[in-house]
Specification:
Order of helices and strands: EHEEEHEHEEEHEHEEHHHEEEHHH
Shape: globular
Distance between the termini: 33 Å
Number of strands: 14
CATH topology: UDP-N-acetylmuramoyl-L-alanine:D-glutamate ligase
Number of helices: 11
Oligomer: single chain
Structural class: alpha/beta
CATH superfamily: Ribokinase
Length: 345
């Protein structure tokens, strides 16, 4: 397989073209479907150990709540200038009310959320001292939807396709996306002439995503989805190529984008592997970086960028958010500023 790299002057020229080409992105509308939740943070300092048990005592200084999971993908689409049509399932509870309010603040409409009274809205509570996590508490019900609710989700997506440029499937394995639902969404999307971008979950069988146009696993997810032996792969000089080709063949997915942390990103299609560098100057927290990658990549690609160009665009956006703590979007202004820094270096 042919290999190439986007680097040096070619990379700098591409980065310099992004500000002008970003003008087309506000015209793009994406359906985002998947598990959503509320990320809550309790922040403070630890100065002593509890006399009641050998555990740290956190002196709370502040609390915060943010959009998580597929809701973070949707807010990244919006913050970069596009429009997100978010389809997801919530419970009938205060967490759902809070989510709706935060979606509106992020300029993402909550009108396409479907209520399932039998399950709570996913909520993740993180207790932190500085950048360090002390504990995470999850409130959720990991169970597939009933046939009626799943049918409502697929019907909602189908009804939005005519007004959208593409579809993002964000799988966090909370139960919203069964194999039947994903395959129905891919089938309906293709019938409407829309590309499907998938951010997979490493615990989900690879066959769930068969037929998608672009899939964006990180390195560990890619290995697990490929079914190859990790120990054997570690000694192979063609590690990433072997994993990517196995995914393409096994999943019938044309384009595999493997995010590789500090080693950048690799796009593998039918005849070539294109390697791109990372753009992170400093890494405080990788939470939500994959959400930013797929939002920026999909938005750019449906907005006229080639797929390799869109991958670079997504990687630059991820470089912005890993410099922050927690699940936060990359804004259009931050991205423009960061591109300026990169092209001046």
């Amino acid at each position: 397989m042919k290999e190439s790299r986007i680097e040096g002057e070619q990379l700098k020229t591409l980065l310099k073209s992004f500000p002008r080409r970003m003008e087309s992105l506000p015209k793009s509308r994406l359906v985002v479907i998947g598990d959503i939740g509320l990320d809550e943070y309790v922040l403070g300092d630890v100065r002593r150990i509890s006399p009641e048990a050998p555990v740290p005592v956190l002196e709370v200084q502040s609390t915060d709540a943010r959009l998580g999971l597929a809701a973070n993908v949707a807010q990244n689409v919006a913050s970069l200038g596009g429009e997100a049509l978010l389809v997801a399932v919530v419970g009938e509870d205060a967490t759902a009310d809070n989510l709706r309010a935060k979606l509106r603040s992020a300029e993402v409409s909550p009108d396409h959320l479907i209520v399932d009274k039998s399950r709570p809205t996913t909520r993740k509570l993180r207790v932190m001292s500085g950048p360090h996590h002390i504990v995470r508490v999850d409130f959720e019900k990991k169970q597939y939807l009933s046939e009626a609710v799943e049918a409502a989700v697929v019907a909602k997506v189908k009804g939005l396709l005519s007004s959208a440029a593409g579809v993002i499937i964000e799988d966090y394995a909370k139960g919203v996306l069964s194999e039947k639902a994903i395959q129905a969404i891919i089938r309906e999307s293709h019938a409407a002439g829309k590309k499907v971008f998938v951010d997979p979950n490493r615990g989900t069988p690879a066959k769930f995503y068969s037929g998608a146009d672009v899939i964006t696993p990180n390195r560990d997810e890619a290995v697990e989805l490929s079914g190859l032996d990790y120990d054997d792969l570690q000694v192979s000089p063609n590690f990433i190529l072997e994993v990517g080709q196995a995914l393409r063949a096994g999943m019938k997915v044309e384009n595999i984008v493997i995010t590789r942390g500090k080693d950048g990103m690799t796009l593998i299609d039918s005849g070539e592997a294109v390697h791109m560098p990372t753009f992170a100057r400093q890494v405080f927290d990788v939470t939500g970086a994959g959400d930013t990658v797929i939002a920026a990549l999909a938005l750019a690609h449906v907005g006229g960028f080639t797929l390799p160009e869109a991958c670079v665009f997504g990687n630059v956006a991820a470089g912005v958010v890993v410099g922050k703590v927690g699940c936060v979007p990359c804004t259009r202004g931050e991205l423009l500023d960061y591109i300026g820094v990169l092209t001046e270096a």
